[in-house]
Model the fold of this input.
Amino acid sequence: MSLLDRHLGFVEALREAGLQVSLAEGLDAVSALGALGWDDRETVRTAYAATLVKRGTHRPTFDALFDLWFPRLVGEGVGAPVLEDERGLRDSAAQLTQFRQRLEESLAAGSEGQAEQSLELATEALGRFGRVPGRASGQAGWSPYNTLRRVAPEEIVGRLVDALQGQGLSGPEADREARARVQRFRDQVEADALRRLAADRDLTELARTTLRPTIDTLDFSAARRSDLDELRRALAPLARQLAVRLTKEQHARRRGPLDFRRTVRASLSTGGVPIATHHRPKRPHRSELVVLCDVSGSVAHFAQFTLMLVFALREQFTKVRAFTFVDDVHEVTDVFVPGADPGDVLAELASRSAHAARFGRTNYGRAFERFVEEHPDALGPKSTLLILGDARSNYRNLSEDVLQEMVASSRRAYWLNPEHRRHWGAGDSAAPVYSEFVAMSECRNLTQLGEFVHDLV
Done:
């Protein structure tokens, strides 16, 4: 593969992963590398990042793709240590014991070159202990699982903590640092396995199957614990961007309809030519927002993040009220205190989810009935109703007539469903039934959520 083909493939992989890279930006990257040169890998990485990456949340995806398309090594690398002993063995009890000792000494050293040395050890560990016998293709594979199971780096955490305490760290600090260094070694082993795999596979297909999407295109239902923390951090910038965008659009729409009489009268001073137009003042309309959200199972994360974003933009509405439900309804409007920490708000929402369940199984029909009974004044001619949930009601009564009554009582009504549209109607999904009465939209990630909230306001 030529350098040009590798550049074009890398840029296309970035676009497919969700990064917006224009043709001009790709040419900027080539110009930057023409000036800086290709002889240093980290310089190449920095040049690409400076010209192609616009958001901090996209940097992890960029780095993962860069490591695939511009690997730091090919095979074992030039000057790699000889892994076989005199008997031709790579993996023996003596070699394992010696390697563990070297790994422990490296992780405990804490020198400036410790990270690089740890990376070299991760490469050696995979080459020595992670080889898998030839498969159908006849080529040997590499298993990070086998490598880490043999090396068992977590077993040295205790001794590593003692060594770090001897260097002056307190007990909790030493424990955190020891676990961080061991985790970095584990990540390096997995990254090197992916690098070796990329040498035998199509890079585009490998990127599709192994890399996680960017945080703004990650499905809420597929988010891990670490992803939830990153999603929470991404909410505040998204809310600020939406607020700025909405303010600009409102200023652009500030002028009302043309005041023909004032315009003609003013044109008399310019010989009847209407150089300056006059407009009637436009009366801004801000509606009341009522949010009713399912907080059961994996849908809870989607509902919580949506509530956080809506309340971050609450000044765009006259009033905002929020209700959660499983099979009963509970109001949570008071949780969203101005200036509150997002983590505390999400924790409080999670703790209150028990109040939204009486029998513990999702029942949309019963929740709608309870909402109308307990909060008859929540909806009115100025209200916008927003329902959040996957419409899976465990084959219970759907109470379509109650939902139809709620929609008729509102000025507008929307439903956000975090499931992919192809799953609507499968199993106990009542999405096709409910979508007959309220406009239902797919909303699986932060990008779709931001676009919908913008249009809602």
Remarks:
- The chain has a mean pLDDT of 81.
